[in-house]
């Protein structure tokens, strides 16, 4: 986890420099690239090498041409669509924990489907920002709750094994399980996904030259939260931990904690709602922009927009029904999409855009990242599919 956190932190920095149009740190410049009086490519010391960029497809187009932009956009859309299916699975799992009489996976996901519909059609940035705040609050609350449970409960792997299997099955922890590494790598990769929104964050900053400082703070917080949840969950439950730590907590029969656990479960439902809508928005908007030139008038455009959104919901629901494994979906998305968007592409584009200006060490690091991403994606995906399907 620490290694992949370091890799994705570095590629986030690279994305900022690609958007800035220069291989030097963003903090080296005193002004915003969008308002700089110094023309790019001039002889001035603080002149940027290239004009600033505002999106992932632009980076791909500048680095690998139109074909590269099409390929990257396709991967981004696939990642967003896959995330919708993952959110359906998560909603189904948590709603089943809250309402156990819905015993089948299909019923869980279908109920989640009806709960998601009202939130999937929010289209204004104001409403989306509210959802983002709800998701952030819920995530922080859940991480805090996991830590409190770890502090209070300690090691309950024995009790969990008795409850799940009816017998004690020591050892409850193993030092290393090689066969599980591909899936684990995919899950870790999915946890550190999100690079697709970095161009939007960079472009909206009042001082883009402080982007790398923002990345440093963000990755420090995210890494600490991930480590806290991982260590707490494994210490409490060992090998019996579920795909989602909140499900393990809900099934642990903790005395006098029924109300608190119910609140945690609803918080997970809320944060999944918010993530579903936030991911639905750019995906549906991107597809609408593709079909818009073929439509005339506001009514056909409105109908097409609704059809696209309903189609995405139904399609992602069907994927969740036929692949109801949270860990399998997360692992596959992490290995296929996150490796491309968060590791391979940023390093490859950095090498392509600024190659002559980079040091030998920087070139070696970029090549190593691309190689690592390609090998991990191919080998990990094959191993995960072999074990999971």
TrEMBL record:
It is a multi-pass membrane protein. The chain crosses the membrane at residues 67-92, 104-122, 134-154, 174-202, 214-237, 257-278, 332-352, 364-385. Its main location: membrane. Keywords: Amino-acid transport, Membrane, Transmembrane, Transmembrane helix, Transport. GO terms for cellular component: vacuolar membrane. Residues 54-384 form the Amino acid transporter transmembrane domain. One of its GO terms (molecular function) is L-amino acid transmembrane transporter activity. It is found in: Membrane. PANTHER family: AMINO ACID TRANSPORTER, TRANSMEMBRANE AMINO ACID TRANSPORTER FAMILY PROTEIN. This is Amino acid transporter transmembrane domain-containing protein. It comes from Proboscia inermis.
